[in-house]
Amino acid sequence: MYDYELVGKWGLAMIEHWINIALIVLLIANTLGAIVTVFRDRNRDITTVWAWMLVLLLFPVFGFAFYFFFGRKLSNKRIFDIRTQRVMGIDRIAKKQKKQMAHIATADYQEEQAFVRLFLNNEQAIFTNENHVSVITDGKEKFAQLFADIEQAKHHVNVEYYTIYDDEIGNQLVDLLTKKAAEGVRVRVIYDMWGSGGRHKKMFKRLREAGGQIETFLIHDWQPFSFRVNNHDHRKLVIIDGNIGYIGGFNVGDQYLGKKKKFGYWRDTHLRVEGDAVLAMQSRFFMDWNATTTEEKLQFSDDYFPDNTQAGDVAMQIVSSGPESDSKQIYQGYLHMLAIARESITIQSPYFIPNQAIMDVLSVAARSGVKVRIMIPSMPDHPFVYRATEYYARAMVRAGAEVYTYDKGFLHAKTLVIDDKIVSVGSANMDIRSFALNFEVNAFMYSRRLAAEMNRIFEKDLRVSTRLTRQYFDNQSGWRKFKQMFSRLLTPIL
Fold first, then answer.
1. Does residue 333 form part of some domain?
2. Catalytic member of 419, 421, 461, 483
3. Which of 35, 108, 222, 298 has its CA at 20 to 30 Å from residue 306's CA atom?
């Protein structure tokens, strides 16, 4: 007779045995998969590599789902498409550069020569002087001025934004562009589908019918949506008739006008530019358009690159960066600015998640007597990211820097000023994502007048800000400190 109890125990033991084997096989497969997935990209930063290894090993199976959204990069074909555009039109603009190079050697730009060479060598970012630059910090003012300039357009309007929402201000922009397209003005729009919350075919239908052209950045028409969180077009550019350019932090959406209760007043920084620097912005747009479109490519002509009359007193370079480049031009520009600062460093950024090199330079500067001031938002738009920002803010306070939270609303400005002489304004945040993962564009300006104006704006913001102290961070709960430390571990992939 069978001992059913014994048979049952044997059966359970066998089941347990095979489950254990299955788990071991799964763990081995997960580990091998993690190694192959992470290390197949030779261009990843080593900290990013180990951060992804941590995620994939700690969260088997689910970690790969997370990687699908956050870890995937552009295809090699797309990278090639972008790289092949990098040299287009530069030779044409370089003729103007030869005329400007004589000014670089003058006493006015002695300290800036290193920057000029850095960006010329890495990015072929032309140096231009005598640009007229207006600083805009209010969304209503920015769109009022932008719409007025578009209204006067005679030949073309080229628009590139990370975010164009299908809301009130988004439709106002499309209505105006539709009107200009119907008048015969050539209108082109590039927007990032992820940043804009998906495709807006209905919103853009009237613009297409009027003759305007719209492209979603590096997304094919057959793709319903982009599941890639990284490698997106974070640039904000508008070029009107090759004479007027807009660059900075504002996107297109009602929240940027302070109409979203969650954020309140939206504090950002944008530039309106007149002068030869606009031609560099135009070149950047041409490269992005030709890398994106599957239709007729843009060709360079005098209509798009006119001879601009000298209009102002600001010397500047338009510098772009993205995952297609190994140079990380904007990051190198930030690092160089911070390294040469002798008196003051002033930073505004919604996300303060620097890498170790930036942290080291800032800490050394603060401990060496350089006045380091950093302003971040008082509220998160991405809670996980904000906890990482708090971690680095606490580290900077301990290093002797002044760290403030902007309390009037949401701070979205991306600005850096050193020694009252060099200024950077653009789309790039002081974080790892902007350094290496997304496509960005900044204006680096060599102007004491503009630096003084930016510092006055910062001082005005201080009136509605709170300084963070060691006591503030010491009084935080253990759970909050844990979230900050855990978020910091994942900063390379945020």
1. yes
2. 419
3. 108
